[in-house]
Task: structure prediction
Amino acid sequence: MNERPYDLVGKAGIALILLAAVDKMLAVFREILIASRFGVSSQLDMFNLAWAVPGILSLFFSGALTGAFIPLYVQWLQTRHIEDVHNICRLLIWGA
Result:
């Protein structure tokens, strides 16, 4: 197991690409099944809305938190001791 780090990253990248492709194919299959069940109707629109809203909110808030937290983390690393930074991060993430 004397693989170079770049080889491991490449293999992990290929695995992620393949899994993402499988995910997209399953998503298309799910859409086909749902469309065959509901047809074109207001019920399908409500289902799609109920399915999409939590995911969109999650992406929005996670993106906002990441965008705000990463610069703070870098600044804290430059101005504080590493143990203090880890304690602050633990407090922010776990609330304990």
